[in-house]
Every structure is written in structure tokens, then in C-alpha cells.
Amino acid sequence: MVERAPEQRLVRTGGARLWPIALLGALTAFLFVLSLGIGPVRLLPPTVVEALLGGGDEVARVIVREIRLPRAILSVSIGAVLGLSGAAMQGLLRNPLAAPSLFGAPQAAALGAVATLSLGVADALSFALPVAAILGAFLSVFALIAIAGRNASLVLLILSGLALSSLAGAATSLAMNLAPNPFAALEIAFWLLGSLEDRSMRHVAMALPFILAGAAILIANRSAFRALTLGEEAAQSLGVRVARLRLLVIMGVALGVGASVAVAGTISFIGLVAPHLVRPLVGYDPARLLLPSALAGASLLTAADIAVRVIPSTTDIKVGVLTAIIGVPFFLYLIVRERRRLGVGGLA
Amino acid sequence: MRPEELALSDLQVVLGGRRVVDVMTLTLPTGSLVALVGPNGAGKTSLLRAIVGLAGYSGRVAFGGRDLAAVGGRERARLIAYLPQGHEAHWPLPARDIVALGRFPHGATDPLRLSPDDQGMVRRAMEQTDTTAFADRPVTMLSGGERARVALARVFAVGAPLILADEPTAALDPRHQIDVMRALRGRAEEGALVVAVTHDIGLAARFAHRVVLLNQGRIAASGSPGEALTPEVMRTTFGVELFRADHQGVPVLVPWS
């Protein structure tokens, strides 16, 4: 076995960079508490913490622990797994524009869930729902990696992503078109918008196990992404089983995205934006990126979910709409930044 | 068969219906630098990929008396260090972290947490490839020649007894071509078997202990540079006339016309 002596850092100087994780963890915790205080009855953070710990008055306790806690848990865990999925996909494909949401994974998951609902196979709180959504996401991510292939250029990746998300969109339109009644069509439409409103602990129980399983798979394989920096062949010659890794990442992403969509609908672009925000903090290391990216995703989605509650409007803004409105311009910005590489036909 | 050698028997690699490596039997001793030469499409890269385990093959590949088909994952990665063409590096990691990936098969997956042994291997590999000066620079910001040497340092850092390098001197200036060939030969003299694909006949003749010339998936010639790279062989495989001189007992070979 290799002996480890991290205190004798003769080759590399500098710490292991724990501060990005600490900083983002604190931010996530702060937003979590803030989120618990936002609503028709505004509660200050100290009141929230007191209620959370079982103290304070009865009303505050019920509001915080029964009404708002499921929503906050979901925004943190869904945001985290979306950020993690984006970082893992970008690591696997060595490509800063690879994110599940650009390839229709959430749409495909929504389709799976909606199909199950409208076919009457399951009711809205059944475990069949996340399973169907996970299956939809799995198919979408699998197709992406099959099309984009071993040495996916940016152009190929973006074009196949466009095709796949269009396909998922068309299939969803078909499902709406064929909906047995207008309510079913409306249900699909709302699903596609993505929201965390009025979620209960039942939803948390439905999604969280799958999210945790997906996250565990991705985190367990993180060091392989570092070896993949050298390309697939070199990584394989270093002992990374690339084909197996590819399948594991597809599974992890599908579990996370599918379960998220099953309870919250399609929430896009967190997986694209979060890794980019934190990549410089971890020295661009694709393995060290995962945890900070998850925390950034949790912060982003929780902040967005706070924003939809404080932005004054006549009807509720859905959080999925907000993340898309922020995310699409960011995506454009990334394309512009990468345009030189796009112009020469992909990654060197 | 001596245990410390690479032995290929009846090796065959089929790619897209074409036999790119055709019933090859070859034994190469450790402690030598072998130059693998041949025209484009002769099967040089396919041969290396089969030995590394990246390409499917029929026949047998054994190293040190062990059938490599039975050796997988990290164990195989500790035996064979492979330098692919192209020197891909997709994220702007510091050159030192790229080299540290050579310790990946030894369980050192985190460049920030290397044991003193691993650090020693990394440092030595960087010294041998003259890359220490830009250890902290992002690898994506380096020149082509610098990046090629970082890629080679990563291969050296594995500390494998078998090193397979696909065109290690491409994109290098003459100074670094010579330095890299010297470093490869140095690794061989320390006991490794180093197989390097090259298109530079002159470098092969100057530095290799042995030359294996491939043509259309078969061995056209094999032996010491002077024996293998004869004017006739060069004419039939490459279609070039060879200029030959001798300098200090080393053949100087130049494709002339």
C-alpha cells in the first residue's frame, strides 16, 4: 500500500483547499434558514432556528417544521444533486458545456413521470413516479453519451443535445396533445415549469433516497474524472475502467435528476451554472469540483426559491422558470466564451 | 523464455474488418529501447494499443512470463505506462498535477496528498524531462513541446517496467528530441523495456538498441538499427533511398531521396 503523509508536502505546496467547501456550506446553511423564514408569515432567522430545534411558539413550529421544512430540504437536496450531476457530466466528457439539462434529461424525466400519471399507473405520491422519471432521465443521458461518443467535440455535443432536448420536448407535446382531459394537459404544463410549492415530507421521502444514492455513486467515482483529464485512452491506461465509469455516471445522474423531477418538475441550468461558478475556486480540478459544485447548486436553487417568494407578482413565479431565465443567458455567455474552440471544430 | 521480457505470439488486431496487426510473433528483452518505425498505417499504434489493453486482439501478449489478458485495471496500469499520441489535457491543471496522475495506478489519486515516495517519483520524472521549470503553470497554457514533455513525465512517473510511447518526439525541437530520446534510453538502461514509435529514422538509429520496422501489419525487419534499417528495406517499405554514414560506431541514417 502507498503510505500517505500529507503533512510532508514536498512536491506541492498549499493547502487542500477546504475553504471553498466551508464557505459554500455556510452559504447553503444560511439560505436554508432564510428560506424557512420566507412566506406569508415572515420569520427572522433566530426564530426559525429556535422553531427548528423544537422551541419557540406553537405557530412558528408548525410553519417552520411542517410547512416550510420540506420545501427547503427539497431545494437544498435537488439543487445539490443537480450541481453534482453537472460537474460529473462535465468531468466525464471533459467538456464545460456538458450538463444534463442541455440534453433534455429533465424533460425526458418529466415525460416519464407524466406518462405514468396520465396512463393512470400511479398517483402523484407513488414511488412509481420517481422510478419512471429516473428511467426517462436514464434514457436521455444514455443517448447523449452514445451519440456524443468517445471524443465528443463541443459542436457534436451541443448539436446532439439540441436534438435530444427537442425530441423530449416533442414527445411531451405529444403527451399533452393526447391528454385525456384539459386538467391532465395542465398538469403536464405545470410539471414542465418546475416548482417547490406545497411539498410535504412525503415528497421528501419519495425523492431523497434516490437523490442520495445518485450523489453517492457520483462522489465515489470522483477521482476517475481527474485521470480523464488526459483523455479516455490515457485514463484507461492508468487503470480507470472507462466504460464502467460511463455507465455509473449515467446511473448517478439519472437517479438524481429523475428523482428531482418527480417531485419538483423540470428545474434547468443549475447543473450547468454551478460547476462554472466554483471551478476557479478548486483550481479547475475536476474531482475536487464535485462537492463545491453540489453546494453551489444547493445555494443557487434555494436562493431562486427564496426569490420567487419575495418577487412581487400577481401569480406565482415557478422556480424552474426563474432558473431557466437566469440560466439561458449564462449558457449563451459560455458559448461566446468557448467560441474560439467551437470555431476550430471542438476540443484539441 | 526469460521471465523479464515482452513476448507477443500470433498477435492479431482487426480494426474495421482490416487486419492492422497480422499474426505477429516478437520477443523484446527488458533493459532496451526499441524504436518502432514504419509507414503511416503500418499498425504501430494498433500494436501499442493491443499491448496496453485498449484494443481487442487474438493471440497472446505476455510480459515477465504473465499473460496480460489475465492482468487488469490498476495492476496492469502499474506494469505498463502508455503515452498516447496527441497529449490531451482538458482542464488547466498545473503541470505538476498532470505528472502526479502517473501515481494514480499506485493508489495516489489526489495530487495534493502524495506520499513522499510518490512525490519523489514525480520530481524525478519532471527532472528527467526538463519540466520542473513550469511545474506550476496550467498545462493548457504550455507550448506544444512543453506539453509533450509533461505528458512524457506523467508516463515516467508511473515507474512501470514497460513503457510504450507513441511518437514521444513529435512536436519537439531538436534539443528536446535528443533530450527525450536520452531520457527514454536512460529509463531502458535502468531496466525498463521502452518501446517508442517514431518517424525519425535518424533518432531511431542514434538512440535505439533495437529497431522493429512494421509494414502493413507485419514485421518487415528487426534487429540493431544498422541491421534492420538496410537500404533495401527502406526502399521497399518507405520508398526512400537511404544515406548511411558511421559516426563514432553509431550508424547515421538519413532518408535521402
Give a written overview of the molecule.
- Chain A has helices spanning 19-37, 45-52, 58-93, 105-118, 128-148, 154-177, 182-193, 201-220, 222-227, 232-237, 242-264, 270-278, 290-310, 319-337, 339-343.
- Chain A is mainly α and 348 residues long.
- In chain A, α3 crosses α13 (290-310), α5 packs across α11 (242-264) and α12 (270-278) packs across α13 (290-310).
- Chain A starts with 18 loop residues before the first helix and ends in a 5-residue tail after the last helix.
- With 257 residues, chain B is an alpha/beta fold.
- Chain B has a single domain, classed as Rossmann fold.
- In chain B, a hairpin with a 2-residue loop joins β4 and β5.
- The model of chain B has no long low-confidence stretch (mean pLDDT 93).
- Chain A binds chain B through residues 1-6, 8-12, 14, 16-17, 94-95, 223, 226-231, 233-234, 236-241, 283-287, 347-348, and chain B through 49, 52-54, 73-78, 80-84, 86, 88-94, 96-98, 100-119, 122-123, 138, 151, 154, 158.
Percent range for β-strand residues of chain A: under 5%
The Cα radius of gyration of chain A reads 21 Å
Number of helices of chain A: 15
Structural category of chain B: alpha/beta
CATH superfamily of chain A: ABC transporter involved in vitamin B12 uptake, BtuC
CATH topology name of chain A: ABC transporter involved in vitamin B12 uptake, BtuC
Question: Helix coverage percent of residues of chain B?
Answer: 25-40%
Assigned CATH architecture of chain A? Orthogonal Bundle
Highest-level CATH class of chain A: Mainly Alpha
CATH-defined fold name of chain B: Rossmann fold
Any idea what the radius of gyration of chain B is?
A: 18 Å
Strand tally of chain B: 12
Which descriptor suits the 3D outline of chain A? Answer: globular
- Give a count of the beta strands of chain A, DSSP E runs of length 2 or more: 0
Written as H for each helix and E for each strand, in order along the chain, the element string of chain A is HHHHHHHHHHHHHHH
* Helix content class of chain A: 55-70%
Biggest sheet layout of chain B: 6 strands, mixed
Total individual domains of chain A: 1
